[in-house]
Structure formats: structure tokens, C-alpha cells
């Protein structure tokens, strides 16, 4: 019923004779296809006496296995032939120079953020990032920003509805984190913030880095020290820096830091101050025991100073001629 040697020899001969992949494929289908030679043989096994089935089954499987090996080998042989003929018939100019691969690079704002993050991580600050969509409470109320504060006006804020908005600063991270953790805390956060502004020094989306420390005996000189250290490391030279008294509803006393640019103008870089006792109280931290400082800085402003750029908007025009200059 099944002559192994005969089948094997015939299949082997047919396979080796096939001159291309099409011929080989039709041989494979004739042998192994659904209605092919082996399927038919297997079906016929039903009619065999039980004692012969195992023996014939074994021979069929052995034939299938060995013929498959020959098929695979011959396919490899034919494929190599195709490549070899291509190689000998086609002309290659091996002196041609390779194709230029255009590699991307980090956006200058990303580089600045990475640098700032590195500085604060090295000093033990923990990075905490929050959602850019915030509710009124964390963006304003919880930060002591009353209903009539100018920052609340629809002019400054992109709103989704009465309660949800695109955060206008990263200070919301301050109060959220303080509510979730207990002192001592040394936290910083970086991310996008949104305001309805557009001129040389403002874009509707920009980046801020927020940092704060809450611990026993934290005072204004700690804040000054970290700011000065940061600026001298970031700019790698001594710049003229001034602390200017200011007002933020969530810090008391408050200050802003300005840096003198090459054109002799003071550029506002950072807002800061000692965390207001009311904010600590809201976060269930006792202001008679703990104190803290907080600061928030504009990443684009720092980038403008570092790269001597006088119009912030160029960072987001995505003009490759501009961006490529920062490729390192
Ligand atoms: N959130 C303030 C702003 O966007 C900056 C700030 C942060 C001020 C932390 C004080 C403390 O202007």
C-alpha cells in the first residue's frame, strides 16, 4: 500500500528537477496540499486492517519528514541562484557614496528641561508630574487665589467649562503633593502650562519648573542659595541676578528673580517665596512646626538667555533651519 523507497525516490527526483520557485511550489502542493498525495494516502488508512495501520502510518510520516527536508533545501538552493544571477547580471557602482541619513536631535527646550531636572535630582529633589488639565480648585482656590484675582480672568486662562481648565502654572502640583505626602518634602515638577498670551516673551503654551521644600527651620536664605546655585550652574558663568519683592497669593514673603540680558534688559525668570501658612494648613501641615519655600521658573526664558534669543516664539515655529543649530 505504501512503498517508501519508491515514493521517496520519485519525490526527490521531481524536486531536484524543478528549475524555479513556481515549479517547486506546485510539487509541494501536489504532495502536501489538502487534496495532495499524502492526504489521500492518510485517508486510505481507514480501510487498512488495524494491525497494518501503525506500520504504514510510520512509513508515511517518515516519508513526509524526509521529503520536506529536501523541499526546504532545494528552495534555499533556488533562492541563492536568484541572488547570484542578480549579482552577476546587475551593475553596481561600488564607488558611489552612501545615502545621507538625517538624524533628528533634541529640541532646545527639551535640552534645557533635562539640564534643570538633572540639577534638582542631584540635590535630592523628587520629580512629581501632574496632569495638564486641572480643576479650578487646585489651580486657584487651594493656592489662595481668590475669585477676583487677575490670573482668573478668562483673558489668561483656557477653560473647558466652569470647573476644568488647562493649568496656568505648575503650582497646582505644590498643593496636590502636599496634601498627599507629609514633611519633610523636597519636590520638583516640570511640564507644560497654558495662558492666553502671545508676544516676544509669551506663547500660549510654555514650560515651567516648580520646586518646593517643606521641613523644619526652612528659611528664605535656603531659597536664595538654591536659586543662586542653580543659575550659576545652568549658565556656567556669573550673570547679574536681582531678587525683586513681589506678590503671590500662595507665598509670603514673595519675590521674583530677574536676570540682566545682553541688551541691558531685566528678564523675569522665576517667582518664589516662603509657602503661605494658609497653604500649609490646607494641606494639614502645621505652620507652627514646619515651613517651606517654593519657586516656579519659566523654561523658555532660561533658554532665551542661554542661547541669546530675543523672541520666544521661534522655539515653537519648528523651522528646521533654526532647530538644527542646536544639534550637538
Ligand atoms: N506659579 C507662579 C507663576 O506662574 C510662580 C511661583 C511659583 C511663585 C512658586 C511662587 C512660588 O507665576
From TrEMBL:
Keywords: Aminoacyl-tRNA synthetase, ATP-binding, Cytoplasm, Ligase, Magnesium, Metal-binding, Nucleotide-binding, Protein biosynthesis. InterPro entries: aa-tRNA-synth_II, aa-tRNA-synth_II/BPL/LPL, Phe-tRNA-synth_IIc_asu, Phe-tRNA_ligase_II_N, Phe_tRNA_ligase_alpha1_bac, Phenylalanyl-tRNA_Synthase, tRNA-bd_arm. Transmembrane segments: none annotated. Signal peptide: none annotated. Its EC number is 6.1.1.20. It is an enzyme of class 6 (ligase). Pfam families: Phe_tRNA-synt_N, tRNA-synt_2d. CDD domains: PheRS_alpha_core (cd00496). GO terms for biological process: phenylalanyl-tRNA aminoacylation. The keyword Nucleotide-binding applies. This is Phenylalanine--tRNA ligase alpha subunit. It comes from Candidatus Westeberhardia cardiocondylae. The gene is pheS.
